[in-house]
């Protein structure tokens, strides 16, 4: 990955460089050849006047003066000065051109740009005018497309290309170093994360990675740390649960065995009262095993709810009635006024479990003289049910965790109340299955309130999402 990233950076640099050089080259060539063409035309425009001046100031075609004019001619330009009758008087060529031509003829190995092939020529006939009118004609032949011929221009062009080449090499060098450094910087936190993930996979759940940035990699590191943290918590909960479940199973089993031994030894009579106690213990075991099974199935997503139209006020009323004897026996007061029927789409069995668990918790965690109140508020699209108690409340630090399976706040107290930490996990799963929401508010020492919002129609809720 590091290598691939580095090579991609490098490829981008090379492509950018290539395109920059090509475009600079193109623009430069064009500008430069335009400049050369312009200067050729300017020189040619001034030529008749210069020749005329030269002739008249000396009274003849003076070689010195002609030589200085020839020197100023653009390379590649040939001028024949003729009498108006057509007879050639002399030919003008930039002497530099002749010199360079000879140099390359002598094979001195110096190519000053003269060995080019001129495919197209342009020609012009200029009249050289004196006081008595046209006294000579200059026939000019020059390359249609100006090329770099002049050594000064030539060295200017090569200086430009040289600096372009040096800049390109520098960009390539700095770019390669930067891309090597950037790809390393990007990859090394990922490599650290991979190592940490491998360690977590091997069971070292304490593994954490340092978060050094706030970008996507930093967010990934934070998410990884949270995941490892959660795995650690889940692992602790699982261990705790195994210990608790062993305890939960052993207590009723020990009690049943003691009763049976007492019956066998004739110490206790197998009467209705004692058999009821055994039956209660068996029910506790059965309840525990069905809680476990339901939670497991719900968490695997395999719970197949049987949705029908359920009268929720009737369902809550029945659940309350089931628990009323226990609540009264404990000396708690109950506030529940059965409202008019409200039908919602739901699974009757699961919803009963949900409200039973909430009410049973309220009962378990409230001491006499306390109050448990249930309120139902129907809305056009959903129904809100809240179960409030004036019990022991839930410590702030436990609030976000109570819906985790096997989580129990204040373990010693929960053991007394005989919980396993499954009830609320199941409540959460059932609420989600019904596309509802669940909220808890609690103050330690004052009480708790669980509020459930259930849609009247599940399909509509799904469509809206
Ligand atoms: P449990 O079987 O222990 O009751 P739950 O999942 O039903 O398991 O509840 C998890 C924990 O949340 C409980 O152990 C208890 O500490 C806390 N809790 C739940 N309901 C209440 C409540 N009404 N009042 C105080 N604490 C509660």
Please characterize this protein's 3D structure.
Helix 4 (151-201) runs parallel beside helix 5 (216-265). The protein has a 5-stranded mixed sheet, with helices on one face. Strands 2-1-4-3 form a 4-stranded antiparallel sheet. A two-stranded antiparallel sheet has the order 5-7. The longest helix has 57 residues, at 2-58. It folds into 3 domains: 2-167, Beta-Lactamase; 205-304, Helix Hairpins (Orthogonal Bundle); 305-464, 2-Layer Sandwich (Heat Shock Protein 90), CATH 3.30.565. The chain starts with a helix and ends with a helix. The chain contains 11 helices and 11 strands. The chain is α+β, with helices and mostly antiparallel strands. It is rod-shaped. Bound molecules: adenosine-5'-diphosphate (ADP). Residues 357, 361-362, 365, 389, 391-394, 402, 407-410, 414, 419-425, 448 line the site of adenosine-5'-diphosphate.
Brief account:
The protein folds into three domains: 2-167, Beta-Lactamase (2-Layer Sandwich); 205-304, Helix Hairpins (Orthogonal Bundle); 305-464, 2-Layer Sandwich (Heat Shock Protein 90). 57% of the residues lie in helices and 16% in strands.
Output the number of helix runs.
11
Based on DSSP secondary structure assignment, what is the total number of beta strands?
Answer: 11
Number of domains: 3
Associated small molecules: adenosine-5'-diphosphate
Major sheet description: 5 strands, mixed
CATH topology of the largest domain, by name, is: Beta-Lactamase
Order of helices and strands: HHEEHEEHHHEHEEHEEHHEEH
Radius of gyration, in angstroms, nearest whole number: 50 Å
